[in-house]
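Supplementary Methods S3. Complex input for the alpha-D-galactopyranose-bound model.
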Amino acid sequence: MTRSLDFGAAFYPEHWPESEWPRDIALMRAAGVTVARLGEFAWSTLEPDEGRYDFAWLDRALDLLAAAGIVSVLGTPTAAPPAWLTQRYPDTLATVDAQGHRDAHGARCHYCVNSPLYHEKSAAIAGAMAEHFGKRPDVIGWQIDNEYNRVCYCATCRAKFQSFVQARFGDLATVNRRWATAYWSQTYQSWDQIAPPAHAVSNPGLVLAWREFVTESYRLFQHEQVTAIRAHVAPEVWITHNFMKWFDAFDHYEMSAELDLASWDWYEPSGWTDRIPSGAMHDLVRGYKRRNFWLMETQPGHVNWSRTNIDLQPGQARAWAWHAIGHGADAVLYWQWRMALNGQEQMHGSLVDQAGEPRPFYAEAQAVGGELAQAREALAGTRVQARVAVLYDFPSRWLIDNQRHHGDFDYVEHLLRAYRALAGRNFTVDVISPDVDLAGYGVVIAPALALFTPERVARLTQFAQHGHLVLGPRTGSRDSAAALWPERPPAGLHALAGCEVEEYIALAEPVRIEGDVSGQADVWAERLKVRAPEAQVLARYSAGNAWLAGQPAIVRRDTTGGSVTTLGGQFDTPTLEIALAPLLALAGIAPVLETPPGVEALRRVGEEGQDVVIVINHTATPQTIPAPAGRVDELTGAATTGALTLGAFGVAVLSAA
Ligand code: GLA
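Predicted complex, serialized as structure tokens:
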């Protein structure tokens, strides 16, 4: 049977004497744990010296877990190279900045992602682990490394970057032309003159190529371990990596291509007060592979790495877990089960403490574990189905961050405005790459999609023949080498959009817009010029900024079966709600449920079309909503009647009765 709603924690038996393990595992069982994640930092225990492996302890831990009915996910330990490795091979240590400072041993992720020797050692430990543990039926999946994050600037990386640029552009004349290097005498005469970006603002072409190179570096590093593992495991055993929140050093879609499953680590160091950014992050991770994902790590109360590490509120763990599941998580794992007695993370939250006793959070986790067990069958094989997509693009984010123009123009914040206008009202949203098939969507929103390629233009043009396309500001200005398109944005789409951008303005003060859509823009505004007589101006800027007063702010042009709406400003969420409402209606897209703002309603749909609606009260105050008719709550067994009351952080998981 397909597994459904796994529940567990990161477990580090190597931190504790074996005599402690049975008690930990008994507590796991009592909490409803179905999966443990092990091994991802245990290199010095798994390979105490070069080529001498010790896997017996991990076998014994896995055996105990399996005997308790708990399956395991094994991590390759390459985020934590051992002392013998970095001492013997200092070139494997990363150079942490463009000024050439080398990292020191003593933390983690201190490796050079391009070091041939590090590749060799990493593939060797991954392969040896897979050969040894790969046939165990209780090991259901593998995680490569842990939260890739270090960018290296050593001589090896620099030389590989030069080769990467050469392979990408072919000859120096092309590089010089596409990066416009005559500007500031940046002209390159030989490949070895090309260096990683080293300045606050570097040539955008160089910045884009560097990020693509970092992506390619991690992709190759990951590929070697994936290959080493695949050689030894059954086809149904999956391989993943645990990505971080809004991390942007590489393109996560590209990194996910070879993985079977996307997963991520969700933390809120200052407490959790807003479901919109976390919902968008879940949706983005679901978008990496366009299927359900795992929440590989999450917060058991508090973390330890922020200035002030605020706890979740009592009861919030329940809303937190169901929020992830409602957005498509098939597993929720806490980090970590029990903290080590020493080491950098002594102060982190966990389920069990240094004495082996359950901490107060344990009871919350146990309640979540119980609920997941109750709903496991109803949610098996279900997934999220959206007819609205928001396009999230790593290169566009890199380019905008390199030249924000207004310091407050934040790519993620900007995207969240549109996302909030939808998810805040319980519309189901996909957050996906602009390079995937858009068939099936009724509305597609491209916020700040700066980078346009001919393929993207063709895909958006095709979509707009039958769907409703919304172009946000800063869209369609750059090509694949980060150069400005030598025409006004949205380049290649003027005819379709019926307008173009004639000027962009960093706003000192917000400006009002009036028309069919009234509201407000802040931080950024573009003065649109109508190009097609049939295009409608839906809003104009009011007085307030002299360059903008009276000029078009929102333009819509209808196509045969769809439309293109060009948004000139960074609008606030209420304005976007007004702008999007008619498009959602035309596309026949309805929210899952209408609820008060503190209540979220999410839907997962099974292969036979049966759906499960998850309703979450994100507030500490009880909330009552009209109950959807003909449903039964999987958590209580109660059939829905006229009203549904949810207690503080309460949840209902509603199947068809
Ligand atoms: C990250 C890491 C974990 C742990 C947690 C602590 O997500 O992957 O190993 O350090 O942070 O919050």
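Residues 146-147, 265, 267, 297, 303, 305, 335, 345, 348 surround alpha-D-galactopyranose (CB under 6 Å). Residues 204-230 form the longest helix (27 residues).
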